[in-house]
């Protein structure tokens, strides 16, 4: 480890932009971005599964509010949502005295809330679309077996629908990673925030942003790889026989 | 022969011109308005501001007449070279590029930065011990950002904002304990607009030069060393006899940091 540090400081000796100090900024930025994106995706996924099922409900009072939610969050820019949750809520009188303020005081939680609600809305629609597209034959076969609606949902529709939604969901994960670049407007030191800091400090936009773009590319590559692996395993039955 | 004659004549005219300039009882000073509170016009059209009043005080001290010439910023140094005026006093930061072209007086002003906190804050001065664990707000990429990051980045949490407005909003919301701002900006956004809700913490900060620069200087043509010397002497006198401090207080609401 010490050797590594020594090697690193040697390699950076005559580099004005990428010194130990700025690299720690990038390192912290990487941690913040991954944390923010990962948590919002996990929570968003957990929210989206029941919502997507309820979204296809026959009852108007279940279906419509969820449609309204996804419509609003897909119909407005994430930046606007983030601004409203971070700067907007403080204008509610007396919010500083409630327990909510503990979470709202830090920039992390408002950003997490905005990202989660946004990705949950998109994921709900992706899953809902996949559920709707379930082949009629599968449903009829399940009915013919005498399955109840609940059992059919659990054994037939959901497993096949979520598998089919996988490629579209992989895209959503990548979009979320890139959308997280706006976190720095609410003072979170994410990857883009670190790049902006280095840019402003050393007047080196090209170096600062090129470096951060390379990190985003690596992250995206990891996501792509993960989803390719999942698709290979879970969608094996759909692959053409070679 | 003819050429030699005309060159000699031109040279003679130039020397005569210089002599005339330094002997003159009045000089003209170029200024670009408005740039509050340094130089601007009163509703009556009269020029005023820190630069203007200090310039007039300097001229009075030297014992010459001063006349102000308003000139747009992009042509302000060419105007000096073209003898439209003999000096520039217009919030001009001393830097090496300009030094190659003009002669600067001693710096007469460095734009001060200051710490602002809510009036009921327990922070009385900005040191490592008092700022430990606090949330400090700065505008991203400003000299205040660099200063605060280098001094307090290891003990405090520094939040960087794209605009001063966002930062002020977050301090009103209670997310920030203290902000570090250009003093005039902080004065107009925090001290003047909110009734006694905010206070200045500690002295105004204009040093070290590494962060805050060389400050503003009066620019002269390179050959007018005599004139620059007179202004430097007058400036030293005004700083000593309190006139400078009085003017500073008038425009910035607070005495400059005692040295």
Based on helices, strands and strand pairing, what is the structural class of chain B?
alpha/beta
Rg of chain A over CA atoms, rounded to whole Å, is 22 Å
Quote the average pLDDT of chain B: 85
Q: If you consult CATH, what is the topology of the domain at 38-144 in chain A?
A: MetI-like fold
How much strand of chain B?
15-25%
What is the molecular shape of chain A? flat
- How many strands appear in the DSSP assignment of chain A? 0
Per CATH, what is the topology of the largest domain in chain B?
A: D-Maltodextrin-Binding Protein, domain 2
- Give, in order, the helices and strands of chain A: HHHHHHHHHH
Instruction: Give the uncertain stretches of chain B in residue-range form.
Output: 17-22
How many domains comprise the coordinates of chain B? Answer: 2
Instruction: Please identify, by name, the CATH architecture of the domain at 38-144 in chain A.
Output: Orthogonal Bundle
Q: N-to-C terminal Cα separation of chain A, in Å?
A: 48 Å
The helix content of chain B is 40-55%
Q: Which strand-content bin applies to the residues of chain A? A: under 5%
CA-to-CA gap between the ends of chain B?
61 Å
Biggest sheet layout of chain A:
none
Shape of chain B: elongated
CATH superfamily of the largest domain in chain B: Periplasmic binding protein-like II
Work out the largest interface and the residue count of each chain: A-B, 16 and 15 residues
